[in-house]
Design goal:
Distance between the termini: 29 Å
Strand content: 25-35%
Shape: globular
Structural class: alpha+beta
CATH superfamily: Gcn5-related N-acetyltransferase (GNAT)
CATH class: Alpha Beta
Helix content: 25-40%
Order of helices and strands: EHEEEHEHEE
CATH architecture: 3-Layer(aba) Sandwich
Number of helices: 3
CATH topology: Aminopeptidase
């Protein structure tokens, strides 16, 4: 599946784009993963948002690029990594992450990036250059591991 990527600051998102992002995040992270948590954490406004769109403009993949000092004092971060159910298994995950890494570097310069990865996805994140650090921990009832891209 070929996607077109847009990287937008919070203030540049249209209402429809923001609605599509929040709807997808709720559908997957809260409903599908049965994980009630506070998705709206006041980090969206400081972040840039990578939207992977189909030819028809449908949101198929998404990440949130968080500047250094917002999620982690010493690291920028990529979070809320998500592929819509209709796009899974179609090879969009790695291009989403490589696009997100490149966009983060374009915005804030080359630097280490830290993520909080669901533990079962460590190999995926490792395949795009992230390295696990520390032990597995519980985040909202789901095993996670910190990973860093150097």
């Amino acid at each position: 599946m070929q996607l077109h990527y847009q990287t937008l600051a919070y203030d540049a998102l249209s209402r429809d784009q923001l609605y599509a992002i929040l709807r997808l995040r709720a559908a997957v992270f809260v409903v599908e993963q049965n994980c009630p948590y506070q998705d709206l954490d006041d980090k969206d406004q400081a972040s840039h948002h990578v939207l992977g769109l189909t030819e028809e403009g449908r949101l198929a993949a998404y990440t949130r690029l968080v500047p250094k000092g917002v999620s982690y004092p010493e690291y920028a971060s990529i979070g809320r990594v998500i592929t819509a159910p209709f796009a899974r298994g179609k090879g969009v995950g790695r291009p989403l992450m490589t696009t997100s890494i490149a966009a983060l570097f374009d915005l804030w310069g080359k630097q280490a990036i830290k993520i909080s990865a669901q533990a079962h996805l460590q190999d995926f994140y490792g395949s795009v250059g992230f390295e696990g650090v520390g032990d597995i921990y519980d985040e909202d009832g789901i095993p996670h591991r910190a990973m860093v891209f150097y």
